[in-house]
């Protein structure tokens, strides 16, 4: 591979990495702001109002599984972000 090909390849990697970081930053902002909604669900879930509403309405938000699954997914995603961040901070290339 000659120098020009190598530089073009590296430029492509730079462009792709910057695009990915920009996209991730946008999604991370959305994820962070969504935590307010998740905490509202946590506060509602299992409380007296939730039990009363559950007896009146048949809605997925009132079921045990959807909210619990969301909380588990949120927790697992947060752990995954920490694992990736730890690798980056340690300069681990894996």
Would you kindly provide a written description of the structure presented here, covering whatever features stand out?
With 94 residues, the chain is mostly helical. Helix content is 82%, strand content 0%. The protein has three helices and no strands. The longest helix has 42 residues, at 3-44. It starts with a helix and ends in a 5-residue tail after the last helix.
Question: What's the short story on this structure?
Answer:
The chain has helices at 3-44, 48-56, 64-89. The protein is mainly alpha-helical.
Report the sheet-strand fraction: under 5%
Helix content: over 70%
Specify the number of helices.
3
Rounded mean pLDDT score: 91
User: What does the radius of gyration come to?
Assistant: 21 Å
Specify the structural class.
mainly alpha
Number of beta strands: 0
For the record, give the distance between the C-alpha atoms at the N and C termini, rounded to a whole number. 25 Å
What is the overall silhouette? Answer: elongated
Uncertain regions: pLDDT < 50 for 5+ in a row?
none
Largest sheet features: none
What is the string of helix and strand elements? HHH
What does the secondary structure layout of this molecule look like, with pairings?
Elements: H1 3-44, H2 48-56, H3 64-89
Labels describing this entry:
about 80% helix, about 90 residues
């Amino acid at each position: 591979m000659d120098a020009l090909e190598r530089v073009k390849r590296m430029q492509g990697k730079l462009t792709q990495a910057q695009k990915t970081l920009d996209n991730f930053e946008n999604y991370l902002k959305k994820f962070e702001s969504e935590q307010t909604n998740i905490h509202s669900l946590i506060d509602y879930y299992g409380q007296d109002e939730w039990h009363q509403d559950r007896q009146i309405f048949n809605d997925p938000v009132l079921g045990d599984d959807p909210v619990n699954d969301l909380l588990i997914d949120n927790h697992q995603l947060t752990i995954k972000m920490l694992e990736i961040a730890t690798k980056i901070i340690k300069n681990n290339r894996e």
